[in-house]
């Protein structure tokens, strides 16, 4: 948590004299942040191809510049964001209509609604911030955000202008990074517009984004670096070494599956024009091929959440939240928190689902199968099984029905553990012979009445996790990883059955809905008793 004594002062003249200040500001004499001191990799060049490390037999890489052996994914390039960032960003709901009180009032509501303590800590000011000033010249006056236990995010573009045509940072990276560090900024979202043609190959994009990565490190301030290049030039292959998250698609829109010609790609591989107006299903399916590139310290960003913006049904928003969560996407609330409905607060607040997102494995889910069925008025309809292994051996399954009719859907243990088969000669993994208890992660969704009481300020405050509630959780008091070790019931949903050896989990899933379950291996003692 940030030191509340530090202030964020953003004088008005800096806004209107942005370009002049770039010339006038001297680089502060700060200590140089050296990633190697923290055992992190240097990021000045591409790594050489994978090599076998004879000592520990794990796949490792030798950094071209330092000669150090590093293990990709073992940790973050700068030590930050080992699990995906959570917070709020104004863009989806407000675009350029931002001001100081919106940010501060949103932050206050997030504290009051328990959202901060569920992990939503970053308040990210998106594009157009240079007009969001108050009369006395301060954007975010004094230390208010940090003293609320929130962190402060800013936005710029790796181009000469931002997407809304405000000054960008291309060519001014170090000056801008130093300025943000002097404002105690904790997070940078870095866009891709007006990049002067500096894209088209992975190397060109890497070089452009790496300049800001190095600049942020040099400030000496820990700043989460959220790349927003929309998946252009395959960041899946190079961004883990220079950033903490990277957008993998064109911009999200508040629609479940409506195709839109402005979002022309249906696959992330080879997509040269990511565009915008991408639906939830479009973005989700683009994750399937590149999911292996999500790792601790580098989250693939499916874009900000649309829950609350009105374009989808309740069950579609549940799909959106569930699939973003299990894919370890950053969870950035993208709606007006001040007018949040109880139903939408209940979705954003489900601790059993957030625990999947914040799992230390920090991996994305695997789409094990997908069939095109039951098309709707847009000609879209499909069902899919997504699965993921969690840090403690638990499994996640998502039975996703994006078709236009209810369906009985099945997940076999064989599908769930497909990847544990031995390559070459098939050997059945031992997990197939176990009993798995099944926990429905939406079964304990808080009621609208409980969510309304939170919004009205008439509910209890969750200061720790000894309150016996299954609907609420305070991750500031107890981390999700610790809560899982404690078997905190708020993180487990409700047990709804089990899968026997070689068995199948079957559930009726309504149209445009998901069945989201955590599977936990039954202990051998229990199993013996079961078999008697
Ligand atoms: C887009 C970006 C959006 C938003 C917008 C602001 O490129 O993907 O998330 O930041 O620019 O203009």
From TrEMBL:
Annotated Gene Ontology cellular component terms: extracellular region
Subcellular compartments: Secreted
Record's catalysed reaction(s): Hydrolysis of terminal, non-reducing alpha-D-galactose residues in alpha-D-galactosides, including galactose oligosaccharides, galactomannans and galactolipids
GO molecular function terms noted in the UniProt entry: alpha-galactosidase activity
InterPro entries hit by this protein: Aldolase_TIM, GH, Glyco_hydro_27, Glyco_hydro_27/36_CS, Glyco_hydro_b, Glyco_hydro_melibiase, Melibiase_C
Region feature Disordered, mapped onto this chain: 39-58
Root EC class: hydrolase
Residues of the Alpha galactosidase C-terminal domain: 380-457
Major subcellular site: secreted
Keyword line: Disulfide bond, Glycoprotein, Glycosidase, Hydrolase, Secreted, Signal
Pfam families cross-referenced by the UniProt entry: Melibiase_2, Melibiase_C
Signal peptide span: none
Enzyme Commission designation: 3.2.1.22
Domain of life: Eukaryota
GO BP term, example: melibiose catabolic process
Family indicated by similarity: Belongs to the glycosyl hydrolase 27 family.
Physiological role: Hydrolyzes a variety of simple alpha-D-galactoside as well as more complex molecules such as oligosaccharides and polysaccharides.
Protein name (record): Alpha-galactosidase
Taxonomic source organism: Lepidopterella palustris CBS 459.81
